[in-house]
Each structure stands twice: as structure tokens, then as C-alpha cells.
Design brief:
Blueprint (H helix, E strand, L loop, with lengths): L4 H16 L2 H5 L12 H20 L10 H7 L10 H14 L3 H18 L8 E4 L4 E4 H23 L8 H19 L1 H9 L12
Antiparallel strand pairs: 1-2
Helix pairs in contact: 1-3, 1-6, 1-7, 3-5, 3-6, 3-7, 7-8, 8-9
Length: 213
């Protein structure tokens, strides 16, 4: 049986849950993370939300559509490239810190339960299933939404591992390859083809950054 985007998301989510359960995360819960103005607990809660939020969108009414392309999801998002103290980024940090107040054990338990539910539900969802992204105001295909969650898990899993001094857990190539492809496309949108080309091939002419987000 062919591996699907849903299988890949479940693999990424399993890695996220394992990292959330690392004793180093609970031990440093209240300390600053590698991300400015965000505690380890807040970062862990934000990582956890990339799993639990999938349950939320599946529970919501199916939107009428049409779905927008995943690249447009990021092009239109107000937080992409926004200042650290922008309304969007402050809101993300505030919610993450609020969710972290439940403690490491509760966050881990909730994420583990959500993953178990998604293992049951995702394979049964129709191939053309749409989901709403209510905090953005548009719809995506379920598989594209799962790709956005894999990107978040990949990036924030590294952030959390660095924050607590453990090795960044490896993810399957079937997860990292589409994530890197999406990041490269977003980098081209923000910086242009030449900047990305030079960053990847010519160190002497590389720009200072080609950050996609």
C-alpha cells in the first residue's frame, strides 16, 4: 500500500510526541527557549498544537470551498515575515504560554490522545476532504493542511530540541522532502530565484538570508 500524506503526518506527529515526552522538556519547562520571548513550555505547547489542531479542524463543519493552494496560504498569512512584536506573533506566543500553564504532563497527555484519535480518523477521510482554516479565513485540502502541520513540526521540533539541549529527532525523508520543497518555494517568493540560487550554490555571492518564513 502506498504511503500517503496522512501517513507522513502521523509519522511526524509521532516524532513530536516522543520529543514532548523527553524528560529534558519537562525539566526546563519554565526556562527561556531558543525563540525570543517564548518559554520552553510555550514552545512545547505550540509544537503540541500542530497535532491537536488537526482534530479541531476535522471536528469543524466541512467548508464549501474552494480550497486555496498551499503556497497562497503562506503568501496571505499576516504572520509570515512579521515583526516579533506584531499582533499576530504576540497572539501566537500568548496562546502558547496559556496552554503551557497546564504543565508538561498535561500537554503530553493531550497530544498523545489526539494522535491516537487521528490514527483512527485520518485514513477514513475522503481524498478530496477540505478543512477550514478559521483563524486565517480560508479553506485548504486536508492533505495540504497536513503539509503545513508537518512544516511546523519540522521547524519547531528543531527549536525545542535546541532549547533543551537534546539532539533534533530525525524525521522520515517523506516528511522532510515536501517540507523543504515548500520552504524553497516560499523563499523564492520572498527573495527571488537568483537569491535562492546563489544561497544554495555560490557562497561567495550568497545573500545574508533566504529565510522562507
Amino acid at each position: 500500500m502506498a504511503v500517503t500524506a496522512r501517513d507522513d503526518f502521523l509519522s511526524a506527529a509521532d516524532v513530536a510526541v516522543s520529543l514532548l515526552g523527553d524528560p529534558a522538556v519537562a525539566a526546563r519547562w519554565g526556562e527561556p527557549s531558543a525563540l525570543a520571548k517564548l518559554s520552553v513550555g510555550g514552545l512545547a505547547a505550540h509544537l503540541a498544537r500542530q497535532v491537536t489542531r488537526v482534530v479541531d479542524v476535522l471536528d469543524a463543519p466541512v467548508p464549501a470551498g474552494p480550497a486555496i493552494p498551499v503556497i497562497d496560504h503562506y503568501r496571505q498569512a499576516t504572520w509570515v515575515g512579521a515583526d516579533l512584536d506584531s499582533e499576530a506573533n504576540v497572539g501566537i506566543r500568548d496562546r502558547s504560554e496559556q496552554e503551557a500553564e497546564a504543565g508538561a504532563s498535561a500537554v503530553l497527555t493531550g497530544t498523545t490522545e489526539a494522535l491516537a484519535e487521528l490514527r483512527r480518523r485520518l485514513p477514513a477521510e475522503p481524498a478530496d476532504r477540505l478543512v477550514g482554516v478559521p483563524w486565517m479565513g480560508w479553506a485548504l485540502t486536508l492533505d495540504d493542511f497536513l503539509l503545513t502541520r508537518m512544516l511546523e513540526i519540522t521547524v519547531h521540533g528543531d527549536d525545542l530540541a535546541v532549547s533543551v539541549g537534546v539532539a533534533t529527532p530525525p524525521l522520515p525523508a517523506s516528511v522532510t522532502e515536501p517540507v523543504l520543497d515548500l520552504l524553497c518555494r516560499l523563499a523564492v517568493h520572498r527573495h527571488g530565484v537568483i537569491a535562492v540560487l546563489r544561497a544554495l550554490s555560490r557562497a561567495e555571492r550568497a545573500p545574508a538570508t533566504i529565510a522562507a518564513l
